[in-house]
Amino acid sequence: NAGVMQNPRHLVRRRGQEARLRCSPMKGHSHVYWYRQLPEEGLKFMVYLQKENIIDESGMPKERFSAEFPKEGPSILRIQQVVRGDSAAYFCASSKDGLNTDTQYFGPGTRLTVL
Amino acid sequence: DQQVKQNSPSLSVQEGRISILNCDYTNSMFDYFLWYKKYPAEGPTFLISISSIKDKNEDGRFTVFLNKSAKHLSLHIVPSQPGDSAVYFCAASARMGASYGKLTFGQGTILTVHP
Description:
The structure holds two protein chains of two kinds. By secondary structure, chain A is an all-beta fold. Chain A has strands spanning 5-7, 10-13, 19-24, 31-37, 43-50, 53-56, 65-68, 75-79, 88-95, 105-106, 110-114. Chain A is globular and about 40 Å long.
């Protein structure tokens, strides 16, 4: 029973390039959450998606960041025109029913480095 | 606005003794609390959770205590083992309102268990 998968594990981009981070939830899970961890900080919520719907994007920066969870395929977090401040670990989590008492299981993360 | 706080950045404990990690929260809408453990370069791993209708939940060596009036929870690990050395995050979610569905994390406490 595979857990949450994320790829790539490490991503290096130059300023101004685009970064695409992928997340495949656990089998049977239809709710996906993205979190960002900046150096020396805790995880911060970014966006909550269900298949083909964005439920809550209150943690997403207003510009350059977007997320999707299509009917088929993984969830994608897209960062356009990356800047050095985007360097962080990006974690995806999934849950089965989306209830607040539903445990969120995390993937291994994608470490983004912007040169 | 740090709604979940872990005021101890680090804790050092001798193997076999009890580790007590603390967490305070300010949002009275939080009603479900979780502890995650995180090793470097990995994603958070779920440890144990507690609903606000309980004041204690136990799972093997891990026990979580919730004091709703004080808005405080703690994780007890007994006996502590060197393999428990990791960063521990407290997280909270709400059954309604702006915090529904998403987890709000504390800053983390680095636990070191010495042999």
